[in-house]
Write a structure and sequence with these properties.
This protein has helices at about 15-20, 60-80, 100-120, and strands spanning about 10, 25-30, 30-35, 45-50, 85-90. It has about 140 residues and is of the alpha/beta class. A 5-stranded mixed β-sheet has the order 1-4-5-3-2, sandwiched between helices.
Length: about 140
């Protein structure tokens, strides 16, 4: 699963998938992408794929995972952050979504997760919820 640049491996153990489930995620179109930075020093990118029974029978789930694997093979070498584990989860419509739109979904989710990770966190007062009175100054 390597084209150029970053070496990519598959996630195989349930514990690796569960660790990614506790990490930040981004849902875009027909996929959800979870990204967990690892503590080790390797520049390796690992990726796993999952499709629940909600997607359909075994044939539809396998088709969904094949499409997501190919999308990841094309997108990850250019966009993935080295030293990160990714899990790509199929949502409804992943098997019927236009190929270019599926590629856009995966790419935009990966870019959003990378931007959220590198964005500085602003410390200050939390914004007041909508409908609550503003404090008087």
């Amino acid at each position: 699963m390597t084209d150029a640049g970053v070496p990519i491996q598959k996630l195989t153990k349930r514990s690796e998938f569960l660790a990614c489930a506790r990490a930040p995620s981004c849902a875009k179109g027909a996929v959800v992408v979870q990204a967990r930075p690892r503590e080790d020093d390797s520049a390796l990118v690992r990726v796993g794929f999952t499709a629940t029974k909600r997607i359909g029978g075994a044939v539809q789930r396998n088709r969904a995972k094949r499409r997501m694997r190919e999308a990841a093979r094309q997108i990850l070498p250019a966009v993935a952050t080295p030293g990160t584990d990714y899990v790509i989860i199929a949502r409804g419509g992943v098997t019927t979504r236009a190929w270019t739109r599926l590629l856009d979904d995966v790419k935009s989710a990966l870019l959003r997760l990378a931007a959220d990770r590198t964005a500085p966190h602003v410390s200050g007062p939390a914004p007041s919820p909508v409908g609550s009175p503003r404090p008087r100054t």
